[in-house]
Amino acid sequence: MNVKVTDSELSILQVLWLYGPSTVREVHEIICLEREVGYTTTLKLMQIMLEKGLVTRDEAGKSHRYTASVKESAVQQSFIGKMLDTVFHGSPSALVLQALGSHETSPEELEKIKALIEQLEAQQRDQ
Amino acid sequence: MNVKVTDSELSILQVLWLYGPSTVREVHEIICLEREVGYTTTLKLMQIMLEKGLVTRDEAGKSHRYTASVKESAVQQSFIGKMLDTVFHGSPSALVLQALGSHETSPEELEKIKALIEQLEAQQRDQ
DNA sequence: ATACATCTACGAAGCATTTCGTAATTTTTT
DNA sequence: AAAAAATTACGAAATGCTTCGTAGATGTAT
To answer: Which domain holds residue A37?
Structure first.
């Protein structure tokens, strides 16, 4: 249920989510744009992620091609769930208030959120 | 700016935020309600937190009395900021949509959030 | 004052994550 | 086919967090 992902595993998943199935080399190139790191480090991490079931790989062809086996939204939810438990006393609204109150949010984004709230309220009325 | 706090440091801060300035013994009692752990473990953690500046302590009297030196809201913000960077592509609305979409939120809480959004929109108009 | 309990300081072991070097294998180039 | 380049597997060191045992200091009770 709850997907556990370390920081560096997350940065690899980010690449896989964004670019789709990729080789170690490809993932490594992207990660190196932000942070100096050895090739075998990325390789080893991806091998560990394979053991843990966070990714799968296709071994046909010259180099292995890795695919994320967890959805980004599942990881997002898992992170939110943990934050709710550990720093927001289980209150989603407290989390939302902090998120909106302290980080710049564009008018368009505010509209999107308002729309979602209307929708949730409509759902609650229907039940 | 960005407060870094580990999991066990967080559980200690939780106690200090909730109960106010406390001794190691007091913090330890509370933590043990949830999780078996040695007294000196809690002690050591709080000493490390002192070095890091996460807490201060009053050394008068029989046992030291520790006080959180970071505000809960600062830690909350720091956590949200990290999540925004690492799993929500910097989009607060994406975070909010996930939080509201996947966790039960009462009508009252939805109202509070709506009120905040109105307020933010008013602010944006004024500028 | 002596014994007992409590508290602090601190070193070090245990654990998970991250890092990389080396060796073996496979692919590509000459 | 031999040399060079790229890839994989894997062991182990480095790091950071957590845990606890031991020793010494401080306070409390007999």
So the answer is: 7-68
pLDDT per residue as tens digits for the range A16-71: 999 999 999 999 999 999 999 999 999 999 999 999 999 999 999 889 999 999 99
Same domain, B11 and B64: yes
Which amino acid is present at B57? R
Q: Is the complex ipTM more than 0.85?
A: yes
What angle in degrees, to the nearest 10, is found between the helix axes of B72-87 and A92-102? 80
- Chain A residues with beta carbon closer than 8 angstroms to that of B35: none
Q: For residue A60, what are its two tokens?
A: 């046909």
Residues of A in contact with B122 (CB under 8 A): none
Quick check: A109 contacting B, CB < 8 Å?
Answer: yes
Whether residue B77 lies inside any domain: the answer is no
Q: Do A112 and B97 touch (CB under 8 A)?
A: yes
Same-domain pairing of A58 and A19: yes
